[in-house]
């Protein structure tokens, strides 16, 4: 719609365009020979210049896209080299029994699936182990047949890292890395198979106008990837022959095939095993033909203008303007997706518009370059993070120094010191942050550290280690001492986080080192020893250089007796006693040492015991707690009161509610069975004890449950049932009263007393009153 609006404005407002007016007036008042001269000048200069500019733009686009294509393959080569260096693919795989070591086999399959998702071009990652019975890992474990064995052994021949065509008819482009990396005696290989469709999509970026063809050739001029279809094989062969003829000429040239002129660009891609050649052919005739046709038309119209100067001047000017209009339309259409610049011809030269559009394209190109630079910076940050995590512990010191220098660090005569900042108090700061905001809080703390570090240290790097924890790596000259500055920095970070984030801080300062390989050990030591902080929600600074040995830590004594009482209270449902017992448990832990490592160790053990009780009851903790990581949640609590509340409301309360719900269902089933027993045996001598024994419970539990579910006591329910049966017999039968008493389970004398107590009158009187209209012969009861 935007493109059509531009064209309509151009057509309606041609008189407003300064270039159009100048040419119209020129043709109108200066005819004949001046018109021919003008046409020739336009033909040789304007048209040729625009044509050259378009060709130059096309070549530049191809070069930029070829670089992107090259970077994608380089990334895959770098990735597979790095994978091969991982311990997972070490020499231990050579003789491993993957059937017995099934867990290792499962981990390898998971690792291959994870590697498969590291790049969109990767379709599948396979691990081939060359032995008497070769093994292939992809999504699962496979033992190869003899035919498959020979195919995969061919891949192992030759270079240690190479690109190859594999699969059926050798149509799959694959990157093969032998294992172990760098060894002459290889036992297998990692095979990365590319997704052909996505690879073709990437290759098609070398065709900027959506028409033409592009290929990739290896060093032996073998076609490894082509965007042409089967119907274009003749064009493909002709183009490859032309490329072979022009291999010593420029990197771009024109090629004519089937009345169509193509702009062909040829270049090399540097691969690890051998260079590749890319070929891109895009039709240029669609761009240049209109300009040539129009320019020739100008010459013809200028000749006719000798006779019809005035009449044809308007038509001639329109024809002159036609290529400029088309060029503006082209620029507007191609640039519409990047900019919203609208052309307004009034008082504005058309070439100014072309210049502005060209500048917009240049800005977009610069923007892409900036994004690429930012990605390179992210790679640099990733290196420091991997160094801190110990991924490069197998590297030599000299190699690490080279990489550090490459990323802009000073390493000669430098020492390194690390700082760990651990935030606490998230549970006590619920008005501002919640547990879902841990990453955000860590990011804010990292920014605060970065701003303060700029003022105090010349060379440093901030690292987000984990949620609520951030690190700082400092590089400084070895002859200097910066401990005083580090302590000042720790205090400034603590004050800033207290004021801005409203959380407490534990700052751990490592010992210095002058070896890059030992940097990750600095962070390991800080992670270990920072757990010696006092388990209170307050600011603390731990200096590892001043820290005493582990032997100086107070002896940890676990209160097993209180643990048993807590478990017993949970079993008995004694909720009112549990809080005081847990408080006593925490107090006992605190008496023997209040460091975080002691308190956390104790409460984790208590939670483990409660979890065991939950499992023993037949309830799975994962289901009970909705899949939450309870250990992680517990480790983030830094207040003893919050620990008690956490146990009560997050662990014990859900468990008790689940037990009560399940117990109510069981009791209801038991009471239903008891009622059936009473209704079937009310005429017999029965008691609460006999019914409890029959349903397998205690008399106390049965009595309590019966009253809770039915609403009346067991004996009252039995009495009511017997009296109702007796009333029915008194009214509708001619049985003697002593017989009725025995039929409902009572002795005669006791039946009279209980009947009168329940109904208010003796049985005989009740029969007389209710049988006045029944006409049933009544026998005397003999009382």
UniProtKB/TrEMBL annotation:
InterPro entries: Homeodomain-like_sf (IPR009057), HTH_AraC (IPR018060), HTH_AraC-typ_CS (IPR018062). Residues 672-769 form the HTH araC/xylS-type domain. It holds the Pfam family HTH_18. SMART domains: HTH_ARAC. Keywords: DNA-binding, Membrane, Transcription, Transcription regulation, Transmembrane, Transmembrane helix. SUPFAM superfamilies: Homeodomain-like (SSF46689). The chain crosses the membrane at residues 24-46, 293-316. It comes from the Bacteria. This is AraC-like DNA-binding protein. It comes from Metabacillus niabensis.
